[in-house]
Amino acid sequence: RALGLKRAGVRKALHDPFAEDALVLYEPPALSTHELIKAEKEKLPVHVVVDPVLGKVLRPHQREGVKFLW
Q1: Residue (of 9, 21, 26) closest to 55 by Cα position
Q2: In a 3-state reduction of DSSP, which class is residue 25?
Q3: Residue 27 and residue 60: Cα distance in Å, rounded?
Q4: CA-wise closest residue to 17 among 44, 56, 46, 47
Q5: Is residue 4 part of a domain?
Q6: Residue 56: inside a domain, yes or no?
Q7: Looking at residues 15-26, what average pLDDT do you find?
Q8: Which of 12, 18, 15 is closest to 52 using CA atoms?
Q9: What share of the chain is helix, strand, coil (3-state, %, to 5)?
Q10: Cα–Cα dist 6/2, whole Å
Q11: Mean pLDDT on 28-55
C-alpha cells in the first residue's frame, strides 16, 4: 500500500451508507439520470460514512458530536 497514490476505479463510499447503525456524515444530493450522464465520474459526490467498527461503539451524544465536527 503506497501513500499518496490514487486508487483506480469507481468513486464510492468506503463503507455501506445503508447498513444498520451506519453513521453517515454527508449524503450527496439526488441527481437525475441526465445529470448522472453529463457529470464527470471523478467529481461525483459520494456518501461520507464513519467506519462501522467505530460507529458501533460511539454513544448517541458522541455520534452527534462527530456529525457536528464534520
Answers
A1: 21
A2: strand
A3: 19
A4: 47
A5: no
A6: yes
A7: 90
A8: 15
A9: 35, 5, 55
A10: 9
A11: 86
